[in-house]
Amino acid sequence: MTAIGQTTDKGDTAGDISSHVAEQLVHLARLVHGGSSDQCLTPAQWTALRYFARANRFSRTPSAFSEFHATTRGTASQTVKSLIALGFLERHANKSDGRSALIEVTPAGHEKLKDDPLSALTRAIALLPADERGRFATVVSVLASTMARSRTAPIFGNCGECGHCDTTGGGPAYCRCTQSLLNQDDMSALCVDFLPAPPNLR
């Protein structure tokens, strides 16, 4: 068995390599939070805070977060409530859907994100050569999509790469799913209604 960080032998089968890579990904996730000096938030709370800072205005709901975090709505709701109690999130009425609430990150929440333990991994990825970084981003995206499909879960992505996004009108981009005009912030934000666009349409 190879140690974490070592490559496998050339004679290894595809299954051996796949298992090794999967173990490394899990190990990376543990390193992110295991080495953090800031233990006041749990990994789930960090994920929620990060999610609501990146989600678009259509996806900042507890139910959308539960889909993103692959957890139950009850568990997601408790995580959100704990962050509201800490002053990092706040709940607003959803004018377009009275059955749900919109969650926003507070100034204190944005300040807290400066201590995000994920930053260490972000810096490590940034050290990769640009071409390797691009290939890695593509591979991770494909893996996330494959896993989501296998669990019939939503595939999260941004509006700029979404099949629902129509940029042919010459004006602001238009979302055919929500039937809404999209602003610049929406184009790079996470969306629960993301639909991978065919390669020739990107």
Structure at a glance:
This protein has 202 residues and is mainly alpha-helical.
What does this structure look like?
The chain contains eight helices and seven strands. With 202 residues, the chain is mainly alpha-helical. It has a domain at 16-127: Winged helix-like DNA-binding domain superfamily/Winged helix DNA-binding domain (Arc Repressor Mutant, subunit A, Orthogonal Bundle). Helix 3 (62-68) crosses helix 4 (73-85). It is globular, with a radius of gyration of 19 Å.
Strand order of the largest sheet: 4-5-6
What CATH calls the topology of the domain at 16-127 is: Arc Repressor Mutant, subunit A
Mean pLDDT, nearest integer? 86
Number of strands: 7
Q: What amount of the residues lies in strands? A: 5-15%
Q: Could you say which overall geometry the principal axes of the C-alpha atoms support? A: globular
Separation of the first and last Cα atoms: 41 Å
- CATH architecture identity of the domain at 16-127: Orthogonal Bundle
Computed Rg: 19 Å
CATH classification class of the domain at 16-127: Mainly Alpha
Q: How do the helices and strands follow one another from N- to C-terminus?
A: HHHHEEHHHEEEEHE
Structural class: mainly alpha
Considering the protein shown, what is the CATH homologous superfamily of the domain at 16-127? Winged helix-like DNA-binding domain superfamily/Winged helix DNA-binding domain
Instruction: Give the count of helical stretches.
Output: 8
Helix content estimate: 40-55%
Outline the biggest β-sheet: 3 strands, antiparallel
